[in-house]
Every structure is written in C-alpha cells, then in structure tokens.
Design a protein that fits this description.
With 161 residues, this protein is an alpha+beta fold. It has a single domain, classed as Aminopeptidase. The chain contains 4 helices and 7 strands. Strands 1-2-3-4-5-7-6 form a 7-stranded mixed sheet, with helices on both faces. The longest helix is centred in the middle third of the chain and has 15 residues. Bound molecules: coenzyme A. Coenzyme A (COA) binds next to strand 4, helix 3 and helix 4.
Length: 161
C-alpha cells in the first residue's frame, strides 16, 4: 500500500526554541515575513500560539494565532513550497480549530490578500465566510484584505455547514 505522506507529519506546539525554523518558513512563504524581533516578542505573549507539522526535525508547515477566548485571530499559516497541495495546511488548520473549539473559542477571524485564491479556497473549505474588506491593508503592495470569519466553532464542526 502506498505511504500516506501527510500522516507521517507530527503536530507540534512550537516554542521560542523553534524560532529559527519558523523564521526560515516565514521567509519562504510570505512577501512580508515576520522579523526575528517580532517573532521573539510574539512568543513572549501568553495569548500567542504557534503550531507546526514536523517530520525528522523538518518544519513543513506552521500556523500562528492569538488565543483570546471566545475569539481567536489567525496570524499566519504557511506550508513549505515543496510540500504544497498535499493536505498539510488543511490538516494543521483542522487540528488547531478542533482543539480551539474544545478550549472555549467560538469565533475565528483573519485577514487574507484579495489575490490569495489558494488561501481563500482553503479557508472556505473549513467554513470561513467573508465579513468585509480592509482597503489597502498590506503596506508592501497596498493590496486590500478580505476579512474572513468562522462562527459557532465547537457548535458546528468545519465541513458540516
Ligand atoms: C495557502 C497554503 C497555506 C495552502 O497550503 P497547502 O498545504 O498547499 O493546502 P492543502 O494541500 O491543505 O489544500 C487544501 C485546499 O486548499 C485549496 N488550495 C490549496 N492550494 C491551492 C491553490 N494553489 N490553488 C487553489 N486552491 C488551493 C484547495 O481547495 C485545497 O483542496 P484540494 O487540494 O482538495 O483542492 C499554501 O499555499 C501557502 O503556504 N501559501 C503561502 C502562504 C499563504 O498565503 N498563507 C495564507 C495566508 S493567511
């Protein structure tokens, strides 16, 4: 039977010790990556969390958010360019949302570039809906951001809407 590569990745809570690996992935995934100073500051905040998918010390995907029950704000979700379209983002997002629902989170929101169709499709598959637009939100290109929101987490599971 062929190996299911997605399931060889292990979910891991990331700490400041993982900073270098997170920075590497940030630079590969985003046009405006978080800096070392920003990430160090974030890891020091009790409401900040970052989870990753790791295999043999390699960080394949990571997701960061502010956990402020009953709200959660997703900050970043990135998958290494060599590992895309293998279900890693979906697995990471699904796992984090499932745990968040159990820990008092009812609403999740985030901003995404209007041009980022891959991320918009991913979030739509997990039940996120468009709530509004922030004009010229991104400083690098002045691109607009879509505000996406997932309601009733923990009451309706993603995919059941
Ligand atoms: C967006 C991103 C996280 C998706 O990661 P991924 O691991 O490739 O996504 P998955 O394989 O889990 O795909 C899940 C679903 O998302 C959608 N999707 C993912 N990549 C897509 C693409 N390039 N085009 C269209 N839809 C896409 C599809 O609906 C896909 O389901 P399918 O494969 O059954 O069609 C990844 O492309 C990435 O890291 N991009 C750069 C960083 C970024 O834009 N992050 C989001 C900002 S918050």
């Amino acid at each position: 039977m062929p190996e299911n590569k997605e399931h060889t990745w292990r979910l891991k809570l990331l700490r400041s010790l993982d900073l270098i690996r997170v920075l590497d992935l940030e630079r590969l995934c985003f046009s405006c990556p978080w800096t070392e100073t920003q990430l160090k500051g974030a890891f020091a905040l009790k409401e900040f969390q970052a989870w990753g998918l790791v295999r043999e010390q390699r960080l394949g995907a990571y997701m960061s958010f502010y956990h402020l029950p009953p709200e959660m704000e997703i900050l970043n979700l990135g998958v290494h360019p060599d590992l895309r379209r293998q279900g890693l983002a979906s697995r990471l997002l699904g796992s984090v949302l499932q745990e968040a629902g159990k820990s008092g989170i009812h609403y999740v929101h985030l901003e995404v570039r209007v041009s980022n169709m891959a991320a918009q499709e991913l979030y739509a598959k997990h039940g996120f809906k468009m709530m509004g637009i922030r004009k010229a939100y991104y400083p690098d290109t002045k691109e607009d951001a879509l505000v996406l929101r997932l309601d009733k987490l923990g009451q309706i599971m993603p995919g059941q809407q």
